[in-house]
Amino acid sequence: MCSSAVCNLQGLMMLCAVDVYGRVFSLSADRGRWTRASDLLLELKRVSGSQHCCWGVGCDNQLYLNVYPSDVPIRHLEETYENQACSKYVKIYCKRWNPVEGYTDTLLPTDRWQWTDESGLNQQPLHSFVLPSPNWEWEGDWYVDDESCGRESTETGGWQYAVDFPAIFTKEKKWNSCVRRRRWLRYRRYKATGSWAKKVRFLVQVPLDRGRPPPEPFIDISCGGWDMSDSPEKHIYLWAVSQQGKVWFCTGIRHQNPEGSGWESVQVPREVAQVSAGPKDLLWVVLWDGQLLVRTGVSKDCPKGSSWELIESPNQKGVVHVAVGVGVVWAVTKDNKVWFRRGVNSYNPTGSGWISIGGEMVMLSVGSNDQVWGVGSDDRTVYFRHGVTATEVTGRSWVTVCAQLDCGGITSQSSACTLNDASEVTAPSQGSVLDTDVRKPRVPKITSDSFISALVSDRSDSTVPEGNQVTSQGPDSSIMTPTLPCSQADGAGTPWSNVDLEEMKGSGTAQSSLATYPFELEQKTVEQEDVPPWAWVTGGGCDIDSSSPISWLNTSDAGPISPSITPALSVTHTPTEKTPHDRDSSRDTVLFNTSNAFTTLQYVHVIRGCMCWWRDWSPHQWEDVSLMLEQVRGAGDQTEHILYFYYTRNHQKKYVHTLIKEVTALVPVFRDFLYTMAVYTAERTRQRRPILLATHSQQDFNTWLSLLHETCGESRGLGHHLSKQALWAVTSKGDIMVHEPSPSLEASAQYLPCEQMFWRQVPGHLLCVESNSLGVVWGIGHDHTAWVYTGGFRGDSPQGNENIEQTITDDRGVYVYENQRWNPMTGYTDKGLPTDRYMWSDASGVIECTKENTNPPSPQWIWVSDWAVDYGVPGGSDKEGWQYAADFHMTFHGYKTMKDFVRRRRWVRKCQVALTGPWQNVPPIPLSDITILPCLTQCSVEQVPLWAISEKGDVLCRLGVTADNPAVRIELAYSGNSWLHVGTDQPCKSISIGGGHQVWAIARDGAIFYRGSVSANNPAGECWYHIASPPRQTLKQVCVGRTSVYAVDENSNLWYRQGLTPSYPQGSAWELISSNVCKVSVGPLDQVWIIADKMAGFPSESPGTVCHRLGVKPMHPKGLSWDFGIGGGWEHLSVRGNSTEAQRVLPRSPLPCRTKSQVNGNAVSR
């Protein structure tokens, strides 16, 4: 309502509360004691505070305003313009002429009035200005606005001249200046600061002569919206609820006009019981049936909003109170349970769901920084929510506000005293309960139908007991129970409040008898030591948090916690492992005694950040978005973590949210020179368009990627150690992905769709990974280095393994092709035909790749060499590295012939990546392919056979590999090292071992071989058997399962070997299964998975899609169809560790044969 330069800091640390007797108290951070308002006859029911003022609803249903004192007075400038015209000007147009007369206030009928506003459209004579309320006073009389500044007018008299009124006015008088005007000013000052003043309901904006009904008596009020705009002058928007359940909106509240300009009615679909407005654009209301409404479309340009949206109650009891902050919403149901609304902010004012927070309250209040205050349901003590920060929006516990009463100077006044100097004289209501000399030795217990319950049910008519007091008989004394009868204000009754004062115990306590409180008491000082039971509290003007050094938040000497708080919150807090975000958001809790601060069952942890989001609809472009990861932690039922994306489109706030449990993969990619991750869900996998999020720095990218991986694993209940049955995959970027299989993955009846498989990343960078069900996992890097998995996950190593985390380095080459075409004039040149490929391209020629614009595979890679000609290109090359062919789509060779019209050469540049992960290097032989014996889960194998192919094409067999020591070296008497060389006639490129120690290998020329006599006692076998390849096909990869053999050829065809039997393991023939296959993996249960090249219908997707063969059974080993899963750059897959069989459902016993004799006769056979 005022700028920071003029606001007083008193309101920034002010907590206001109302007790059950209607008395108003304030608590400041510096004093540390409850101070009662100076207007002792003031009785309020509810208050709503901001940082600069506080509003209240009295027991007479009238509005009261308390503006906090400020060093700068509140002054409002009133102005009006005096208009005159030249006499000659008037008479010319009236066909009369008198050059003697000058300017006069006699104007033409078409002119403006003599006294108007600046535009001249509204008449404003001096006598029409009146004070808007008795809370204002004039500062002097009217004066002319000129250089005299209120003193005696100068020669100009403040006049401005123009040709006509619509023209531009100047100070200089010219020969054609036919009209003139001057500005009159007068200031009025708000004089009711620092005290409660009654607000006039019928203001200028709602005149009675327009046929619009005036506001009814109010039962609730809430102010907010002061942070909605970034302008220096803050506006406060006041919302109120009438006894008829209507919503009213007050406009024009600012520093120069704290009372506002007028009321406007806001249409609501149902009757409203309570309203709450946040410091920004959040507005929630509670309906009488316990449901809630959210106001949408609220903005600085439209502070009233546009529509309502219905929100269900968190339980069947219904909501009785709601409290709104900047980005939080809290609610209290009729059973006094506290609830928190998830995902609420300006982009999503309705939120996404409720979670239960421990404690029982009757009402809550949220401060300007989302700190939460409340009033306990049983003890009526004011509580503060400890631990509320920007990351933990729900806090961790409730602590009591242990401030005492400030008894100095509190005196009772007669009923005839005024509220303040500027307000009208107000008589006390009939229900006034004034201070007495009866001391209360303890906090009274408030019954369930107490004052706060009565406030919520203002509309209902309460039964008025006869008399002004009720006697409660005890065994030794009679205790007076005062009642507050309703005051008849505007014909509407206020309900009664039943205050049950328990029997006062203790020796020497004065007993009270029946008494009647008079309305005029003698002036006497009242000693009051005990804190009264509270009915309402507002923290809108209290800008403190848990770390603020506030003395009255120290609970070390506080009294006992309310029983309604203790059972729900007295849970032993067990320390949990802190993430880096938890450590960043840790708070100093020295001021809080944990003996009286109880931990909740659930709490919300929020992490915010900014990223770039790829909008996958027109126009396709990167958008800056705000991210919010909302994590629900603590005891109780598992609640979904949610990831929100907030963005603005066409000046409208939009958001997209994703349940973390629905995320199936987080895959690092590289796009547009940004650190990008692809977020997959089942639906996004079907649509083949993941959510793309990117950052500009690698540190932010790694932080978010690690955080989201951890949150996804937590939401699915996955630990830090991988299952031995896991499926392993590698992307084209070298990222290692793992899937934890379930028994339903290979179920024949109800299988798990591939699109629902959850993949998580393991640190490292490899080219391929192979595993088996005993936990033996090996991998090969791009530089052909062998690595063995040590069993850790994301930095965690198994017990007993020290220094397992190693730096993983990987080298690879990035290739570009230089293409040229021959012509008879110049020979070979880079001037090709219009239909030719780019002269600098990739291997396919489709993508243009020059040495200047070619980058490493991802930002993690760095260049370690310059560009150089690659002479080791497949097919050979001449001494300059050129390869020749008749055309670009033909096969290239390393020599030139008469028919070769095109040539190309390959350029290579080395790059390197260095990461840290749970992998151990296995020197010294570089490998190109590897395979491990697939085993069933229940089998016991002392040593796991492992076969490999070296970079040179040699076949190797590694002995002594076990699950406990997967990289063990056993020194053999005949070899002297860990690798056993198996002789071959020619170098190989692919090898696989399957059930029964079947070993198959493919030579570099495409020939396929079977190794005979391989067993546990003879791990190297005896000889190779040549197997005929498919007709006119060259095989490139083979994979052997338990009883089946599959192979992939150079044309991406998948082949199945028929006729495999124990007596004839070589099989009889090849059968084509499918095309469009890059790689195949056959598991220990003969399950078949592949990496498909492309998925039909999505040509723009990058090659590499995970697919599962459905319908594979012992009697149908070839399966029936393919199930497509995640894709877009997946290069390798291994399912050879998944030996988890689906649960077999035993068939029911056959029904007994029924005889042909039936109830309705015999069956007739035909």
UniProtKB/TrEMBL annotation:
Domain Peroxin/Ferlin: from-to ranges: 73-145, 158-191, 809-870, 881-914
UniProt cross-references to Pfam families, sorted A to Z: Hyd_WA (PF06462), Pex24p (PF06398), Tectonin (PF19193)
Region: Disordered, residue numbers: 459-481, 567-586, 1144-1166
Composition skew (Polar residues), residue ranges: 462-481, 1155-1166
Keyword set includes Repeat: yes
Annotated InterPro entries: Beta-propeller_rpt_TECPR, Peroxin/Ferlin, TECPR1-like_DysF, Tectonin_beta-prop
Basic and acidic residues composition-biased segments: 575-586
Repeat recorded as keyword: yes
Gene Ontology CC entries for this record: bounding membrane of organelle; cytoplasm
UniProt keyword list: Repeat
SMART domains for the chain: DysFC, DysFN, TECPR
Domain of life: Eukaryota
Family according to the record: Belongs to the TECPR1 family.
PANTHER family: DYSFERLIN-RELATED (PTHR23250), TECTONIN BETA-PROPELLER REPEAT-CONTAINING 1B (PTHR23250:SF10)
Protein known as: Tectonin beta-propeller repeat-containing protein 1
Lineage, opening ranks: Eukaryota, Metazoa, Chordata, Craniata, Vertebrata
